[in-house]
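Protocol step 4 of 6: structure prediction from sequence.
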Amino acid sequence: MRAPHRDRRGPALAALCLALILLCAPAAAEEAVVRVLPDGTAYEATITVTGSEYTFWTPGMLGERVPLQVEALEVLGSTGPVEYQDAGRGVITFPEGNYTITFRAPVRDNHLVMAFDTPYAVTVDLPGDFDVKNPLIGMVSPGAEISSGPNGTTEIAWDQIRLVEVRFYTPEREILLTTFGTIWIAVAVVLILPYLVSRKRGGE
């Protein structure tokens, strides 16, 4: 015997709400872990990928997509390394699935840039010799959480981001900036002080 129409409204309403939740909920971000090498000239990255291709790229001067040259590239599946095809322009292809990609890429002038086609949860580990906290010579992309990592490292993390930028510096560079700034302040005081004294005397 068929249930009355009013009795079927509850399950139908629950199914509709579940469908709306699934449609509206954002997809979970893929993950990327980046480790800057001790000399600061390159980084090693481990990223998770779902699909059949991945593109390595970095923004150009006008925001255009510039292929990123990477080294030591591996695509790892659940059973180990997987063969991939180089499709050119920074694109690699592989069988549809879930993978972990590892690679190494250069860092120029202490400025790390990583770009993704979809939002990623990204963590960047800086060696203890580098810092980003001084806004005059360091910077990180908005939304970052900066904390102390193991062995004196600095850990920078974003929940979801498409473009990561980190400009780091050494303690020597911060000392140089402080010294340079102190010298300029002293010069400014020497130049301005006679003017202020003369104005004070003129007003008497």
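Step 5 (inspection) to follow. The chain has a mean pLDDT of 82.
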